[in-house]
Amino acid sequence: MIAKVIVNIPSSNIDQLFDYLIPPEFCDFASVGSRVRVPFGDANRQIMGFIIELKDESTYIGDLKEIIEVVDYEPVLTKEQLAIANFIKADAICPLSRILNLMIPDALKLKTKKFLTVVNFKDLDAELIQLFEQNETILYKENFKKYDNRIAKEVKKGNIVIRYEALQTVKEKMVTKYVLNPSFTYRNFDRLKSDLQKDFLERLKGDIARTSFELMEKYDVNLAMIISLSKKGYLDKIEEKDSRIKVRNIPVEKRIRKTDNPIINQLIKSMENYEKPILYVPKDENQLLESLLQVININQKKNKNTVVIVPEILSSYKIENVIRKNTLLSVALINSQLSIGELLDYYNEIKNDSYAVIVTTAKGALLPYQNIGTYFLLDSESDNYYNDQSPRYDLHKVMEYVSNITHSHIIRVSYVPTILEYTYGLKGHLDIVEDFDKNIEVKTEIIDLKKELQIGNNSSVSIKLLKMLQINKAKGKKSLLIINNRDYSSYVICRTCGNVMKCPRCQISLQYNKKHNQLICPACSHRMSYQKNCPICNSTELKFGGIGIEQVEEDLKENLPTFKIASLVTNNFETFCNIEIDFEDGDIDILLTTSLFAKSILGKKIGLICFVNIDAMAKAADYDATYRAYSALMQARMKLIDINDATIVIQTYHPNDEYLKDFLIGDYHSYVKNELVVRKILKNEPFYYINRILVKGKYEEIFQESYNIKQSLQSTYGSKVFIMGPTYNYQYSAAQLIIKHQMNDISEYYQKIYQNYQSSNVTVIFDKYPKYI
After folding, report:
1. Do 274 and 408 share a structural domain?
2. What is the mean pLDDT of residues 675-684?
C-alpha cells in the first residue's frame, strides 16, 4: 500500500505530496489524517508528515522509501479538517503543510515520546499484557512495532489509550488524591482516639480516590485531619494525571426564557429558514449578549454545540465569562495565552465533544469541533480575521465553507459592518438582520484644532477639552481618551536636513517611546536606542511629530496636576481587569487607551469619550480609513447610550468631512452610500477585488520575475486587470504587485503561476486579502 504524504517543514515552501511505502505491520491502521515519521531528502533525515491519501499503486518512477513510523493509531486530522485545508489551499494559494499546522496543537507537532496506558487489563490481548509487566503506563519503544496491529485493535476497543508527551514543553498536570487503606484501617482502627476521625473513616469505606478539597467538601472535615490520617497510614496518597481544565455541564434551558425582542426573534427565524450566512447588526451589547444566550439555548435543546469566535484576547475572556455565568454550561476558552499543555487538554476534550460552548480567537477556529449547531463570528469587521502571514486566508470565507460542510449556521456579528460586508448583504450573499437606531442621542462636540493653533495652543489637548474634563470630574464621572498610538510620537524629523528616522527593515517612520527612550517600528517591532542627534547631518534639532498616549498623558499631567491619569496599552487580562475596576470604582479620573482596548471597557460612570486625534485614523493611507474612524465613533456612541449627560468629543483639523456629518446624524446607510460613490471612482472594494503578489529572492532577480508575472497577467486578461508596480516592499523584503480586477476565477491563473515557480530561485506569495498596502 502507498501513502501520499505531505512533509512538515515549516521553513520550506515545499508543497507537493510524496509517495511512501507502508510496511505491512502498519497497513491495518495507517489512515488518512495520521501523522507519520518518514525519511526525507538525500540525507534521509527523519521528519514528521501527514498522510493525505492512500493508494494501491504509485505513479512515481524509482525506488520508494518506507514510512518509519505511523505515529497515530487514530488520525489527528478529521476528514472535515482535511477538506477545509484543501479549501484554504485553493483560495490562499500556499503550502498545505502550513494550513495543517493550524489545525493541531503545538504539542502534537513537538511529539518526542509516545506512551501506552492500559484502561482495561481484563480484556486486554494476552501478548500485550506481557509488554506492560503490571505497569499501567509504558513508553512505546522501537521493538514494539511488531505489536502495532494488536495495539491498534485494543485502542479501537478502548482497552488502551495513547498519550504523546513533548518533554521540553508539556508536562502532565498531577493531582494528589486520598483513598482509604482498608487493611491498615481494619487492623489499627481501635488505636484512633478521635471519634471524628473514626466517623470519617467509617463513612469513607467504598469511596473512590478524591482530592483533599473534595474530601473536605463531601465529608465536612479539615485538611489537618486528612494529612494526619495519611501520615499514620489510614489513607493512601496517590498521584493521578489531571486535566488542566474542568468540564461542567448543567442544562441551560431552565435558566433562559424566550425573548420578546423582535430583532432577536427575526434572527432566530432566519436561522430556522437558513439558506445563507447571516449578517447580524445588533443595536447594542445587551442585545448581542441576549442573542448569544438565546441561540445557545436553542442549540442545547437540539443537543448541538455553539462556537463563538472573537477577534482578540480580551473579548474572549469577557464573552466566556458572560456565557458561563448566565448558563452554567461547560465553556472552553481558547486563545494565544494558553500554555501548550492547556491547549492540548482543550484539544482532547473538544475531540471528545465535552463542551457545549467554545469561545475562541482565530487561533482555535480550525480545531476539530464536534456536533456544532452555530458558529458566531463576533466583531466581524476586525482585521484579525485576515491572516497576514502564510497561509494568508480570510476567516469569514473559511467559516462559511465550514458551515456548509458541517450543516451548521454561521452568524457574522458587527455593530458597524464594513462597506464590503454590508454590500455583500445588499447583493443577497448574506441575510441581513439589523437594528440600526437613528434616534440614539448622545451629545457630540467637534473641536477644530486649526482654531487651537490660531490662539497659540500647540498641545495635543485643546483648551476646550481641558475645561470639559474638569467639568466631567466635578460631576463625579470618568473620562476615556482614545489615541491609536501607544508611544510618545508617530515620527521623529530633523529640522536641519528634513531626515525622518526610519526602520532599517521596513523603511517606515519609527515611533518614539519616551518611557524606554527607544525608536520602535510599528510594523515589525524593530527597536533601537534614541540618539539625540540626526544620523545624517548630526544636528540636535529634532522634532517629534504626531501624538501618542505618552505625549497626551504628559500634557494632561502638566495641565491637570490633581487628576489621577492612567493608560491601558496591554492585552494582559489581569492588568486589564485591575485598571477597569479602578477606572469604574477607584480613583482614576482619565484613562488613555487605543480604540481596540476601548471596545472592551465598560463603565456606567463614563461621562466623556474623546478621540484626541481622529485624523490619524481617517487620513491614513488606506481605502478603509474613513470606515475605521466612523466605526470607532459608532462604538463609542453605543457605549454611552444608557448614560445620562454623556458626551463624545472629537478633535480634528477637518470638521467638515462627510463621514463626520453622517456620524452626527447617526445615519450608517447614508455613510455607506457616500463611501460607495468614492470607491467606485477609485476602483476599490466592493467594486473591485484588490490582490497583492510578493516576489522574494535575490534583489537582482525579483523585479525581472515581477515584470514577467505582470506581463503574463496583462496578456491574459488585458484591460480587465489594473496592475500597479512592481515596487519594493521593505517590510516583506520583496517586489510587490497590486492587482485590481472584477474576476471570480483569477485564482485559477494564480495557481498556475504558483506551480510554475515551485522549483524557481524566487518565491511567489499571493495575498488575496491585503488590509494594509
Report:
1. yes
2. 94
